[in-house]
Each structure stands twice: as C-alpha cells, then as structure tokens.
From TrEMBL:
Matches recorded under SUPFAM superfamilies: Cryptochrome/photolyase FAD-binding domain
A Pfam family matched in the record: DPRP
Transmembrane feature ranges: none
Top-level taxon in the UniProt lineage: Bacteria
Protein name as it appears in the record: Deoxyribodipyrimidine photolyase-related protein
Record lineage: Bacteria, Pseudomonadati, Pseudomonadota, Gammaproteobacteria, Cellvibrionales
Biological source species: Pseudohaliea rubra DSM 19751
InterPro entries for this protein: Crypto/Photolyase_FAD-like_sf, PhrB-like, Rossmann-like_a/b/a_fold, UV-DNA_repair_photolyase
Length: 510
C-alpha cells in the first residue's frame, strides 16, 4: 500500500522511525512549511529560519538518498499539516499516512483526529530518537513517591554504560560532580571566538522569507549563525569538544557580561530537531575525557544534562500531560510586563538575558532559570504567559522540553514534581555567579531604598507571601524561619518596598 510519510520540522533525522519504515521505491515523503505551526506562538525568527532551512536541506538529503519527496513551501499558502497531508495523499495517490509521534501534546491531540478527517489509516510511530521511551519512564516512575532526576540519571548511566569503571561503578567514585560545575565568572579567562555556520543560498532565501512574513516576531536575522544540516551541526559540536568542553565544566552556572554563551555547547536546537543524536554526543564526550581532553567534572556535567535532564524532562512531560500545563501551585497571575518583549529594563543581568533571548533565541541555563525565571517566580508573573514567552523566544523551544523546565523548574507551578524546592534567589546569588552587578545601576548590597537591587526585596516578599506553603518544604524551612525571626517592622518595610518595586516594574495592568 502506497503510504505518505509525514516528517515534521523537528524530526529531521534519517533515524526518524517513520522514515525507517518508508519504502523508497513505493512511498512518498512529505515535508510542509505551514502557517499553523509557524504561528501558534510568536516564534523567534531564528527558530523559524532554522526549521525552514533545515527542512529544505533535509528534503535535498532525502532526495539524494533516493526518497521521493513532496515539499510544501511557506509561500504555497497551505494552512496546516493536515491540509498538506490531504493534498499530498490525493496528488500522490497514497492510501495511508505515517508519522513519528510529535513532541507537543497540542499536535498529538490534533493528529488523533486525522484518521477520521483524512479518511485513510494513520499510524503514529513511537519516537525512537530518545534514550528513554515514554513507557520505560512511566515504568521507572511507577510506585515512586517522589521522582528525582539524580536516581533516574544513575540508572541511565548504568543502562548505557557511560562513565563507568570496569566494575560498573561511576568513574572517579561519584555519580555527580555538580559541586565542581558552579564557579562564578570573574572575567579572568578568555572566551574563545565561536565560529558561525555558513549561510548558503537556501538559508539566504529562507532568511528573506522569514524577514518578510514574520516582521513582528522577535529575532535579529542579521546575526543568524545556526547550522542547518547534520554535518554543520556536527562541526559545531566538534568545535565545542575541542575548545569549550573543559571550561564548560567549571563555568556551567556562571553569568558573564562578556559573552551570551560562555563555554556552553549551543547544541540543544540541533538535538531537538534531529540534526544531532544524543547518545553519540555522550559517547564523544566520554571519549574526549578518556583521551585526557577534559576534566571528569566537565564530561560528567555535560552527559548529565543530555542523558539525565533532557530525558527526564521529556518523561515528566508525557507522564503528566495534559494536566501538567494547567499547574499554578503558587497562584501566580501578574501580567507579563511589556519589557519582556523588548529587554528594556535597567536590571543589568535581566536586560542582557532578555536581549540575547530575543535577538538570538538563545540564553544559557542559568540565565533562563536564575535570572529570567527567578524574576518571574519572585514577581508572581502569570504562569501561562511566562511559559508562552519561553516557547516563543528560544530557538530550541518545543513544549516537551520547555514546559517542565519553565512551569516546573523555574516557576514551581507543578508544586514540586520537577524541583525539590522553588529556585528562588536574591541578588546575592546573581552577584556570586558573575559580573553583571558591577555594571548595574542597582546596588546588590541594598534591599530597600533608592537604587536597591529589586531581586533582594522581591526575594523576601516571596518568602513572606508563601511562608506557610514553604515551611512544609524541608529545604526552604530554614529561610522562612530566618525571615520570621526578623523584627516585624523590618519585615514590613521590606515587603512594602517590594510591593512598590513590583508596581513599578510589573504593574497589575500589564
Ligand atoms: P548546554 O548548557 O551546553 O547543555 C548541553 C545540553 O544539555 C543542552 O544542549 C540540552 O540539550 C541539554 N540540557 C541541559 N539542561 C537541560 C534541561 N534542563 N532540560 C533539557 N535539556 C537540558 N532546553 C531546550 O532544549 N528547550 C527549551 O525550550 C528549554 N527551555 C528552558 C526553560 C527554562 C526556564 C530553563 C531553566 C531551561 C530550559 N531549557 C530548555 C534547558 C536548557 O536551559 C537548555 O537546553 C540549554 O540552555 C541549551 O543551551 P546549550 O545547548 O548551550 O546547553
Ligand atoms: C516549530 C515549527 C515551525 C515554526 N514550523 C513548522 C512547519 O512549518 N512545519 C513543520 O512540520 N513543523 C514546524 N515546526 C515544528 C512543529 O511545530 C513541531 O513538530 C511540533 O511542535 C511538535 O514538536
């Protein structure tokens, strides 16, 4: 039976199970640029350009490999994936459709109606590009009172034999070297210049299209630098191995004035759309360590992110959706300030993190979690609006990975499924991790009064507001206790100052 294989814009890999099942002689492959996917949030223009260019390059790679490919370009004006599938089924005379499962519950729910809508059998295949299947994760989670990434990660290390000694014990005697991954940035090392990927004719045409069709979306296309093929993405990763991995270990949690990415790998978007493969990256990093090319803390830290966190958040997403998206444990509902869309704030750390997020579609983990996310948590910004912002702004954002990180880890909206305590911090943390405070108009040593760093008073206001809830958490109890022991007048003054700052920075009327 001639079958149409639909390949989504974040499934651009020959290991895509729907392609593996495709008969090159008989079947037809469809890739489609459609308004529905390009507009369900105001995606960063870098993200749209990355996906469209990578789709077009993958189309050519598929044709070179002997597949018959039907390609719908954005200007063909086909509104949705379902419409593109309908058209192509008819044109190709195909009588069935197959696709690898999508990474977002929104699209999975829509696809569940396709068989009836299209009038042909539709098979949705399990996404085999992850290292832990949804069923395996659910089996691991079953019966556990509390899920913790660390235990999942150890099992994954064992399962894939990564960083283990000959007796199956963790190399170096410890599973986790997180404590060695937390140095603050003091600008006393050089950040190596990072090569941009080349812009070829296909990417050039896509950049022109995106500039014209998405004029209001965030993203400065003049600085587009992303890889759009598996080979280019691999070259970016090889650069990271040779020039950044070792220092990545040390500065994983650092914040720097000098660089938007420090020693981070900048590969999440390639992994998420299928241009790189997670196990190969982990094995390459292990090999680099075994060859003496980086510290064990760097190799373990990197592998933990890919083998541990990335798989873990995906497991949490599918285990708890769709209810997960409704979580708002701390009842946060303050409107997202407009300056989230411009970066126009005088808080230096926040300004830099927002600006690079909007312009490049990239911020590293600590910027996402402890600068932007922390502000949103302390200010009580509306959970749904913040999640939509993250989904729109980052090049690597797909809901399966964005939502647990934002709603769960950053905002504690899931009430503790992802994180054992809210990641709330005062300006002191931001100062310790980097050098933004030195260039900031606010004074991180002050909690109240003109020029005081807003993170400080907002932090205590957060503790005050959620004291009853946080007291139940073993890891937050001490902080609540120390706050409540303070003089009542002092507490009142801090909360009053924080309320004023909040009204100024994030007014209730948006
Ligand atoms: P590196 O710091 O070099 O890390 C290596 C790789 O590890 C990343 O490429 C990524 O694939 C993986 N990784 C690291 N941390 C995580 C994590 N917490 N969850 C999943 N994978 C992880 N990541 C996304 O891919 N898409 C998102 O939409 C996304 N949204 C986030 C939202 C918030 C609020 C937070 C706190 C984190 C989010 N992350 C997201 C995770 C992480 O911040 C990014 O993966 C990382 O910053 C990407 O940059 P990098 O490739 O330079 O990563
Ligand atoms: C993100 C995205 C965008 C911007 N455009 C397309 C598109 O035109 N066609 C397509 O197949 N996929 C696109 N994507 C990726 C999808 O939104 C993604 O596959 C789903 O969100 C599921 O993860």
């Amino acid at each position: 039976e001639k079958t149409l294989t639909l390949v989504l814009g974040d499934q651009l890999s020959f290991a895509n199970p729907a392609l593996v099942a495709t008969d090159r002689e008989r079947d037809v492959v469809l890739l489609a640029e459609v308004a529905e996917e390009a507009a369900y949030v105001a995606h960063n223009r870098h993200k749209i350009a990355l996906i469209f260019s990578a789709m077009r390059h993958f189309r050519d790679a598929l044709r070179d490999a002997g597949y018959s490919v039907h390609y719908v370009a954005y200007d063909d004006g086909v509104p949705s994936l379902e419409a593109a599938a309908r058209q192509t089924l008819d044109a190709a005379g195909a009588t069935a459709l197959r696709c690898c499962e999508p990474g977002e519950a929104r699209l999975a729910a829509a696809m569940a109606g396709w068989q009836a809508g299209l009038g042909v059998p539709v098979s949705i295949l399990e996404d085999s590009r992850f290292l832990c299947s949804r069923d395996d994760f659910a089996a691991w989670a079953k019966g556990r009172k509390q899920l913790r990434m660390e235990y999942f990660y150890r099992e994954m290390r064992r399962r894939y034999g990564l960083l283990l000694d000959a007796d199956g014990r963790p190399e170096g005697g410890q599973w986790n070297y997180d404590a060695e991954n937390r140095s603050g940035w003091r600008a006393d090392e050089t950040v190596p210049a990072r090569p941009a990927a080349p812009v070829d004719a296909i990417t050039g045409a896509v950049l022109a299209l995106v500039a014209e069709r998405f004029p209001a979306n965030p993203g400065d296309l003049d600085v587009f630098r992303l890889a759009v093929t598996a080979e280019e993405a691999e070259a970016q990763f090889q650069w990271f191995l040779a020039h950044a991995l070792d220092r990545f270990g040390t500065y994983q949690d650092a914040l720097a004035e000098e660089s938007p990415w420090l020693f981070h790998s900048l590969i999440s978007m390639y992994l998420n759309i299928g241009l790189l493969e997670p196990l190969a990256l982990c094995r390459a990093v292990e090999a680099r360590w075994r060859a003496g090319g980086c510290s064990l803390a760097a190799a373990e830290g990197f592998i933990r992110q890919i083998l541990g966190w990335r798989e873990y958040v995906r497991g949490i997403y599918w285990l708890h959706m769709p209810a997960y998206a409704e979580g708002n444990a701390l009842h946060a509902d303050r409107p997202l300030p407009d300056w989230f869309w411009s970066g126009a704030t005088e808080l230096r750390c926040l300004q830099q993190a927002l600006k690079q997020s909007l312009d490049l579609g990239y911020a590293h983990h600590i910027q996402r979690l402890m600068v932007i996310g922390n502000f949103a948590l302390l200010a009580g910004l509306d959970v749904r609006a913040v999640c939509d912002w993250y989904l729109a702004v980052y090049v690597d954002a797909f809901e399966w990975v964005e939502l647990p990180n934002t709603l769960g880890m950053a905002l504690y909206g899931d009430g503790g499924i992802m994180a054992s305590k809210p990641y709330a911090a005062s300006g002191k943390y931001i100062q310790r991790q980097g050098n933004h405070c030195a260039s900031c108009r606010y004074d991180v040593r002050k909690t109240t009064g003109e020029g005081a760093c807003p993170y400080n008073a907002l932090y205590w206001r957060f503790i005050d507001r959620h004291a009853a809830y946080l007291k139940k958490n073993a890891r937050m109890g001490l902080m609540v206790g120390s706050w409540q022991k303070r003089d009542a007048a002092e507490r009142e003054a801090i909360v009053a100052w924080a309320d004023g700052e909040l009204a100024r920075l994030a007014p209730e009327d948006g």
